[in-house]
Design a protein that fits this description.
The protein has a single domain, classed as Spore Coat Polysaccharide Biosynthesis Protein SpsA, Chain A. Helix 5 packs parallel to helix 8 (about 210-230). About 40% of the residues lie in helices and about 15% in strands. The chain has helices at about 20-30, 50-60, 75-85, 105-115, 135-150, 165-170, 180-190, 210-230, and strands at about 5-15, 35-45, 65-70, 90-95, 120-125, 160-165, 195-200. The protein has 8 helices and 7 strands. A 7-stranded mixed beta sheet has the order 3-2-1-4-6-5-7, with helices on both faces. It is an alpha/beta fold.
Length: about 240
Amino acid sequence: MSSEPRASVVIAVLNEAENVEAVCAEVIEKMGPVAPFEVVFVDDGSTDGTPDILARMAAADPRVRLVRHAKRCGKSQAVRTGVLAARAAWIATLDGDGQNDPADLPDMLGRAWAAGAPGPIVAGVRVRRDDPVSRLIATRIANGFRAAVLGDHCPDTGCGVKVFPRDRFLLLPCFEGMHRFLPALFQRYGHPLLNHEVRHRARRAGTSKYTNLGRAVVGVFDLVGVIWLVRRTQAPTILPEAPR
C-alpha cells in the first residue's frame, strides 16, 4: 500500500462464501473516496469455501487482508483478532452477511474524526430492519431489557456497524459476547456514545449462525457479567503533567 490506512474495516466471517465477495466490493467502492483504508477479514474457522475466496481477494488487492482462526472462537474474539491485526488508528466493523450497508461508513467515520479526543464510539442504529418478525420481536425485548439494566442509551447495541478508536478498544476486557455491549463498555471508560442511523438489508444468501433461543440464553449470562464489569470499573481521569 502506498500510504498507511486511516481506517481499518474489520469484518468477522463464518461460512459466508456466498457473500464475502460482494461485501468486499461494496466496502472498497464506498471507502475509496474517503481516506486510505484497509479491509481486514477474520475467518472464524469456516468449513466452506470462505477462506479460499478471501485468500484470492487478498492476493489480488493489497488493501484486502485475511487473518484465520484454526477453529471457531466466536464473533467477539474474531473482531478482536481483526483489531489486533489492523494498522489504522480507527476501526470500523461490519457483519459479513451483506445486511449492513458500507455506504454508512463514511459519515460514521466523519463524525468520529470530527469529535476529537478522547474519541467516541459511533454505534449504528438500524432504523428499518429487514429480518423475520420473530427476530425483530426477540431483539426488541433484548434491547429493552439491556437498556433498562445498563442505561447505555443505545437502542440497538447489537448492530454490527460501529466505529471506534483501535487503542481504546484493546483496553477493554475481552469475552465472547462483548461486541453486543461495546457502547456500555466504551462509555464506562470515558468515551462518548454517538448513535447513528444506518440502513439494513435482507441477508443475500446463506443462513444466520444464531437462533433466537441461543441468543437469549447466552445474552442473560453476558448481561450479568457486563453489569459486574461496569460496576467494578473505575476509569481514571489523567491530569496533565506539571510544567518543568
